[in-house]
Amino acid sequence: MGHIIKIGLASLLFVFFSITALPSVQAASQATMQVNAEISNSNFWDYTFIKETIPSKPSTVKVEWSFGNNGSSPKDATIISAGKTSGQVAIVSAKGELVNFSICVRNAKNEILGKWGMQVTNKGQTESVTISLPETIEPLFNKN
User: Fold this and answer.
1) Cβ contacts of residue 41 below 8 Å, gap of 6+?
2) 114, containing H or E segment
3) What does the DSSP assignment read for 67-87?
4) What is the pLDDT of residues 58-109, one digit of tens each?
5) Alpha carbon distance 51, 119 (integer Å)
6) Helix, strand, or coil here: 16?
7) CA distances from 17 to 12, 20, 24 (A)
8) Is the pTM of this model over 0.85?
9) Which residue has the higher pLDDT, 55 or 16?
10) Residues in a beta bridge with 130
11) What's the rounded Cα separation, in Å, for the pair 40 and 60?
12) Cα torsion angle, 11, 15, 20, 22, sign
């Protein structure tokens, strides 16, 4: 009987320490990647872009991200609001996980005026992107 009580106590202690130690193990395996975005021209918010032949002004800059190769369960956040010139978003995932993220300039109708993206492994680093005005809105021709 005493042997059964000792085994029961040992099991309860094991379960207790397993539960209390689990959050610290999970926290150690996570990484926070900072995404910084900056607008290089103070006239950016006044600039008119062409969206499918319709003039449109930017209203927000958003970050969209997902994890892994399949890009399931995408998330987004506004990183820069109209009139601002910079912003930052923290993306938390498992350390070493593949992160797909895009920086999107959107108009007031939430349509994408421009988009840039990349895939990185989350090591807790900072990724910085500068958004600039285009040099021209005319077609570019190259001789082949």
Assistant:
1) 47, 132, 133
2) strand 112-121
3) ETTT--S-EEEEEEETT--EE
4) 999 999 999 998 877 899 999 999 999 999 999 999 999 999 999 999 999 9
5) 26
6) helix
7) 9, 5, 11
8) no
9) 55
10) 38
11) 15
12) positive
